[in-house]
Amino acid sequence: MKVHLWRDANCNRVCVVYDSSTKVPDGLLTGNVVQLGNFDECLATHALDADGHGLFWGQYCLAGLAVERAWPPPNASAPANNFSNHLLAALAGHRLQWAVCLPASCAAEDLEAHLQARMPELLLADAEAPPFELRALLLATVFAIVMASTAYDVTHPDTNKDALWLAFSVRKNAAALFATRAHGQMASVNGIKFLSMAWVLLFHKYCVMVETPNDNSDVVLEGLKYDWTQMPISNGGTMAVNSFFVIGGLLLTHGFIRDRVAGRPFSLVSFYVYRYIRITPVYAVVVAVYATLLYHMGSGPLWNPVMAMHRENCRHHWWRNLLYINNYQPVTSELCVVQTWYLAADMQLYWLSPLLLWPLWRWPRVGRALLATLLVVPLASTFWITYARRYPWADAKDVSNEIRNSYFPLIHASAYARSAPFLVGVALAWALHLTRKNRLRLPAVVVALAWVSLGCISWTITYALYIYYKPDHAYSALEAASFQALHPLGWGLIVAWLIFACERGYAGPVAALLSWRWWQPLSRLTYTAYLVHFAVFYYDLGVTRSPGHYTHYNVVHIVLGDLVLILLLASAAALAFELPVLNIDRALLKPKQGASASAPAPAKAMQRLSVPAVALGAPRPSLRSNGSAPGAAHVNVAFEDDLPAPAPEHDQNNSFNFQLNYFSIEVFQLQ
């Protein structure tokens, strides 16, 4: 075969085809399992006959093979019987991918026949990019509206401007978005919001890097499990989402109490409707971009496997997102905008919150008893489900799809399992309300004990998983159930104490740090940054041309660059979609009033961009400097689609049982 190729009249072109394909790789045992060949060289290949007519063009194919672990996993101490078993043991849990460059005249079936002759149980699939869709013109329309509104704002210096014409003005919205003001109530929330979001983003980046081609991919995963310096990223990052449930419950209850103290009527319809129209438009835009535009914004060896899946998920399941029920998606691989399970859980808790807030206000004793009772629900339900189904502590890399698809809606993303930190936030708001007039004086010993105790809880939550990850650790359903049930509550108590201490003067320099005025504009971007950050990570993965090499320096370098880009995209989304919706709401939905009272100045009104108002009654008063509105609930930015791993039950069988269960070929042609 090689002789014939070299003697071909288009020898050079055939050599290019061969050169751009993957050869037998080295470093398989260290995780070098993704071999991408040369994507651009393959697609640029073309051969002509003597008359100048095309003979063939290059077609890039990416074959993938998943090697699953046996379940239950084999005993870690059992020796491999031969080299093949040793190799499969090292590759278990990985997805091997390798590039093949073929003439465009070859169909996927040709490669399928060739590979299935050697691997008869494999499944083949192919995909090609469709033409650019007309719906992409919607972005151009929005851009034109933004430019027109900005031009109107700039060219009409008078103060009597039409509010609707100014709704999309970049000049006006940017001034509100990036404004800083003197510290107000709960100013520390701004710092906690942004730092928690950055923590979540860092963790998500590591999750994507596990799937990114590296010649030492195993180092990434092993470091997240066993490296004490990286465990705060992997383990703490998965817990940081609970910070936003605490903040959501806190700000919702704080606004509810403030409206009731002011004597404003409570409208349940407005409570629900305003929240929905406040956070949904920009969310819907992101879903639409995933379903249409994102797929056409790049190319690369991994582009189809990454982007096509997310596009199809959003095309078929967008309605789950807009109804805020996507956290109960029965198949996790079909999630649209995977990280937005959090928005669904948060919205569901918001829908149910009047059932608790109203008794707390009207019948305090009954309300407090109800709050205590409700705190038991997530603890008991999470404990029992984890124990009965033998779910793991954390990390779902090696878990089967069946376990993953049940674990995600029942534990990871369910509103009831995440309600403990939300209820802690509700309790914190009432504690701050009850101590607002008489300054609470806690003995220094009590304060010190609180800091030490919660520091120990934080340390335990972050590093307890080291025990679970140890290869020789025997799985215990009791341990797993206890950890799953208690860690959200523990994290909620940590965040609640941090906010309480800052508000009541027990945090010292910590309060000064978290209340830094420049956290204000950054915290306003948390919602849109949370919505767009995975798109940036997916883009990075999709355009990868060759494997990299993982080092801590490379990670820091990449993450800082991604963070800047995410904040820029978040700013654009806020200016083009989020703030204009708020302006239109104020112009159309706010009850008409005289010059009295309550309409906030435009700059202050924009303070609400990351804290949507939830309780409408009469006129809305001006907003506080901490970014909360009356009856406001923080639009939490949160966590991930990462799933805990299966409970490792060690099998005493010395044999290795692996399955090669999935194979696909992605086909790319130069359009």
TrEMBL record:
<keyword id="KW-0812">Transmembrane</keyword>
<feature type="transmembrane region" description="Helical">
    <location>
        <begin position="407"/>
        <end position="432"/>
    </location>
</feature>
<dbReference type="Pfam" id="PF20146">
    <property type="entry name" value="NRF"/>
</dbReference>
<feature type="transmembrane region" description="Helical">
    <location>
        <begin position="444"/>
        <end position="469"/>
    </location>
</feature>
<dbReference type="InterPro" id="IPR052728">
    <property type="entry name" value="O2_lipid_transport_reg"/>
</dbReference>
<feature type="transmembrane region" description="Helical">
    <location>
        <begin position="559"/>
        <end position="582"/>
    </location>
</feature>
<keyword id="KW-0472">Membrane</keyword>
<feature type="transmembrane region" description="Helical">
    <location>
        <begin position="239"/>
        <end position="257"/>
    </location>
</feature>
<feature type="transmembrane region" description="Helical">
    <location>
        <begin position="277"/>
        <end position="297"/>
    </location>
</feature>
<dbReference type="GO" id="GO:0016747">
    <property type="term" value="F:acyltransferase activity, transferring groups other than amino-acyl groups"/>
</dbReference>
<dbReference type="Pfam" id="PF01757">
    <property type="entry name" value="Acyl_transf_3"/>
</dbReference>
<dbReference type="InterPro" id="IPR002656">
    <property type="entry name" value="Acyl_transf_3_dom"/>
</dbReference>
<feature type="transmembrane region" description="Helical">
    <location>
        <begin position="522"/>
        <end position="539"/>
    </location>
</feature>
<feature type="transmembrane region" description="Helical">
    <location>
        <begin position="368"/>
        <end position="387"/>
    </location>
</feature>
<feature type="domain" description="Nose resistant-to-fluoxetine protein N-terminal">
    <location>
        <begin position="8"/>
        <end position="132"/>
    </location>
</feature>
<keyword id="KW-1133">Transmembrane helix</keyword>
<feature type="transmembrane region" description="Helical">
    <location>
        <begin position="481"/>
        <end position="501"/>
    </location>
</feature>
<dbReference type="InterPro" id="IPR006621">
    <property type="entry name" value="Nose-resist-to-fluoxetine_N"/>
</dbReference>
<protein>
    <recommendedName>
        <fullName>Nose resistant-to-fluoxetine protein N-terminal domain-containing protein</fullName>
    </recommendedName>
</protein>
